[in-house]
């Protein structure tokens, strides 16, 4: 009699360790497990579970970051947070894995309440989490004008856009949305 238990375990282990398996799993598990929310005024963020099977998200959810933060934007599994300290540095993090990155200081002063969009599109063969952070902020050079600055994770740098929106409506903090390749 042939015992293939050890052989099938080895095959299964190789399949699980494959980066394709992990990537495929992250793309196939897209249901909403809960909501990450924060009260205005800088209270600590909290996770509200929707799915009774979801667990493992620590409370308060962002205690692993080195400073207290305000949540500014989210895209799929990534969050953009801004330090509540005077330096206002941005952090990109995954609150489930507790991995984070402090972004370099922007070139421009984004003011107290920039409108921010985090663009992260997870592609099947994209094993590196590349993302773009788009910040719209009130111009200090022109009245009733909005400027834009973009951070690229691929280049690990900020670039100020040459585009300026004149006579724009008032910026609404945390209002940006990215859908199907378009930022609103």
Word description of this protein:
The protein contains two helices and twelve strands, in the order ααββββββββββββ. By secondary structure, the protein is mainly beta. It has a four-stranded antiparallel β-sheet, with no helix packed on it. The protein has a four-stranded antiparallel β-sheet with strand order 7-8-9-10, with no helix packed on it. The model has no long low-confidence stretch (mean pLDDT 77).
Q: Helical element count?
A: 2
Number of strands: 12
Structural class: mainly beta
Low-confidence runs (pLDDT<50, min 5 residues)? none
Q: How much of the polypeptide forms β-strand, as a percent range?
A: 25-35%
Features:
184 residues; mainly beta; four-stranded antiparallel β-sheet; 2 helices; 12 strands; 12% helix; globular
Topology:
Elements: H1 5-17, H2 19-28, E1 34-37, E2 46-49, E3 69-75, E4 78-83, E5 90-94, E6 99-102, E7 115-119, E8 132-138, E9 145-152, E10 157-166, E11 178-179, E12 182-183
Antiparallel strand pairs: 1-2, 3-4, 4-5, 5-6, 7-8, 8-9, 9-10, 11-12
């Amino acid at each position: 009699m042939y015992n293939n238990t050890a052989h099938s375990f080895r095959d299964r282990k190789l399949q699980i360790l494959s980066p394709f398996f992990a990537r495929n799993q992250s793309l196939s598990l897209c249901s909403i497990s809960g909501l990450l929310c924060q009260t205005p005024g800088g209270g600590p963020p909290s996770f509200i579970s929707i799915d009774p099977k979801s667990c493992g998200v620590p409370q308060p959810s962002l205690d692993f970051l080195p400073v207290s933060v305000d949540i500014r934007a989210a895209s799929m599994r990534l969050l953009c947070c801004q330090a509540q300290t005077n330096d206002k540095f941005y952090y990109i993090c995954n609150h489930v894995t507790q991995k984070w990155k402090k972004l370099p200081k922007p070139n421009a002063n984004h003011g107290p309440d920039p409108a921010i969009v985090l663009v992260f599109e997870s592609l099947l063969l994209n094993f590196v989490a590349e993302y773009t952070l788009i910040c719209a902020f009130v111009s200090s050079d022109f009245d009733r004008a909005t400027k834009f600055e973009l951070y690229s994770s691929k280049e690990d740098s900020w670039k100020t856009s040459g585009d300026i929106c004149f006579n724009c409506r008032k910026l609404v903090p945390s209002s940006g949305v990215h859908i199907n390749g378009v930022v609103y």
